[in-house]
Write a structure and sequence with these properties.
The mean pLDDT is about 95. The longest helix has 19 residues. The protein is α/β, with parallel strands linked by helices and about 550 residues long. Helix 5 links the parallel strand 10 and strand 11. The protein starts with a strand and ends with a helix. It has an eight-stranded parallel beta barrel. The structure holds zinc ion.
């Protein structure tokens, strides 16, 4: 037990280690009011250091001098991940810090433990105060997350110099810098044929082939050069930050199914992606390039409004043919793992990967079974997330989950820990999460509540006669989950009870109980909870998919 802490930094004061010490100081102060200082004596000493003895990003926590604790990283980010483990396993009394007793060595098994912020639709990442998101990025790093991707969504803007584009860019710059400061590889996603809202109409893809229709056909050299110029302009504006990650996407909007581009995934897409990758490599030597195969053999087919010369599986097959050996401009292939499409099953069966490249997965943690996404609070999925990982582990470099907001914070921790250790038990991660955020005394009950909230999560919206109902597919347990969390709440210290992580979990259980007891029609307690979620998400301007369904939101939608 200590009422003051001294932090000893290693010689050289590497910026990431200094940042790790500052984050430690902030988190401890917020939880128990104990001050941790580098320049004052303390009842306990926390010694930070770098000792390159384990794999990249690993750490060791051991007893230190003066009855203290030593956190040694194999590199600077490893110090930060060790601090994360130490924080999560420590305890916080009123004015007292009780150092965690976990000792040992931990080394990540996967290199890529990422997160992608979908910053659009006026969701959290689009609208929250920048400093709040910066802090959130630092908190994610404590779980070992070491890659951060964002998107500069060109179709929103009338060119790069549109004032709105520049405002948005300064937000992204803050996120990317924050990630860099905690040792992340940060970078941009682009569509291989992305276009601004004012892209030349004569160069655009046929309207039927893409979502927004402002993208350019890359088989037209003038169009392809224009996309290259736009992307280079964007990348050069970020040289002071230093990007380490560049991923090129075939869809969601985007793609071209004209006869010269088709099959897009194996032809037009690759012809467009290669020059972009080379530009990225030129502007940022050492940048890692990911080629996404997301929605291959599915997207254009689903969206085609007129007949396309489509053969099942030809995008993935074509890419296998196109890359018999590893291309020099790529580092990874991104695969998604959704069921119901042919090639993920084939990949898991025959294991053939284009160019024999290492794989990165793109787990979905935001949108399953609940619409609006996060609209009912937290969506913990400790059972589902491990089950969906059917990619051959031997070729897996890691994963970059898709995130729409903070409501899936627990899922981010679960996947970060899977990417750290393949055999990690997700209940164990939830327990560590709950112990840190709410206290060890309630951790087991939060694990139980998270398990139930996953069972009751799936719901569908039914609108009839001016009344909207949100019908839970499996309502059993909704009362129990809320009873558990009500009891837990009465035991929480103020810092935990008031935290957004607690509120989104608690409100989820409250909303579900009220829905079940009111024939799935939102009542006054639901309305109050939706409004609070709206404030927590900064979703006041959000489109329906990212807005908790308050009466005002439902009314707007009906009109
Ligand atoms: Zn085309």
């Amino acid at each position: 037990m200590a009422r003051t802490i001294r932090i000893r930094l290693p010689a050289g004061e590497h910026p990431i280690v200094v940042r790790a010490a500052e984050i430690f100081r902030r988190e401890v102060r917020a939880r128990c009011g104990v001050e941790a200082a580098t320049d004052a004596p303390g009842e306990m000493t926390l010694t930070l250091g770098v000792r390159p003895e384990t794999g990249s990003g690993g750490f060791r926590i051991e007893d230190g001098p003066d009855a203290g604790v030593r956190v040694l990283g194999s590199d600077e980010p490893g110090v930060l991940y060790g601090i994360g483990k130490f924080l999560r396993t420590s305890r916080y009394g009123c004015g007292e810090f009780i150092a965690g007793s976990w000792r040992g060595v931990s080394v990540p098994e996967r290199d890529v433990r990422g997160i992608y912020f979908a910053s659009h639709f006026h969701n959290y990442y689009h609208e929250a105060p920048v400093q709040e998101v910066v802090r959130y990025i630092e908190e994610l790093a404590l779980w070992g997350i070491n890659h951060l991707g964002v998107w500069f969504d060109m179709h929103h803007f009338q060119g790069f110099h549109d004032p709105q584009a520049q405002r948005f860019l300064s937000r992204l710059r803050a996120y990317l810098s924050a990630g860099r400061n905690v040792g992340m590889r940060v970078g941009l996603g682009v569509l291989a044929n992305e276009g601004y809202a004012d892209s030349p109409a004569s160069l655009r893809i046929p309207r039927t082939h893409g979502a927004y229709g402002v993208e350019l056909c890359p088989s037209e050299p003038v169009g392809r050069d224009l996309v290259c110029r736009w992307v280079e302009e964007l990348l050069r504006s970020l040289t002071d930050i230093g990007l380490g990650l560049f991923w090129v996407w075939p869809y969601d909007q985007g793609g071209c199914a004209c006869p010269r581009c088709w099959p897009w995934g194996a032809k037009g897409f690759i012809d467009a992606a290669q020059p972009l990758a080379r530009i990225a490599r030129r502007v940022f030597p050492g940048i890692r390039v990911i080629l996404s195969t997301w929605y291959f053999d599915y997207y254009i087919l689903r969206n085609a409004k007129e007949g396309l010369p489509y053969r099942p599986g030809e995008e993935w097959d074509g890419l296998l043919d196109r890359f018999p050996v590893r291309p020099d401009w790529l580092d990874y292939i991104l695969v998604d793992e959704e069921e119901g499409r042919s090639w993920p099953r084939r990949l898991s069966r025959d294991g053939r990967v284009p160019g024999h490249l290492p794989l990165i997965t793109f787990p979905e943690i935001s949108m399953r079974g609940m619409h609006p996404w996060g609209g009912f609070g937290a969506n913990p999925q400790p059972r589902h997330l491990p089950l969906r990982r059917n990619t051959p582990a031997v070729r897996l470099a890691g994963g970059i989950p898709y995130s729409e907001g903070i409501f899936e914070d627990m899922n981010k921790a679960i996947l970060a820990q899977f990417h750290w250790r393949d055999q990690q038990d997700s209940d164990e991660t939830v327990r560590e999460y709950a112990s840190y955020e709410f206290g060890p005394a309630v951790a087991d009950r939060v694990v139980e509540a998270a398990r139930i909230l996953e069972q009751t999560m799936i719901r569908s919206e039914k609108a009839e006669g001016g009344v909207t109902r949100f019908v839970l597919q499996h309502p059993a347990g909704a009362f129990e989950a809320h009873a558990i969390l009500q009891q837990v709440e009465s035991e929480l210290p103020a810092w935990a009870r008031q935290s957004w992580r607690w509120r989104i979990l608690y409100l989820r259980s409250l909303i579900d109980r009220e829905l079940v007891s009111n024939d799935f029609i939102p009542n006054d307690p639901c309305e109050e909870a939706f409004q609070e979620l709206n404030r927590l998400y900064h979703a006041e301007k959000g489109i329906y998919s990212v807005s908790p369904p308050t009466r005002a939101v439902l009314e707007r939608r009906r009109r």
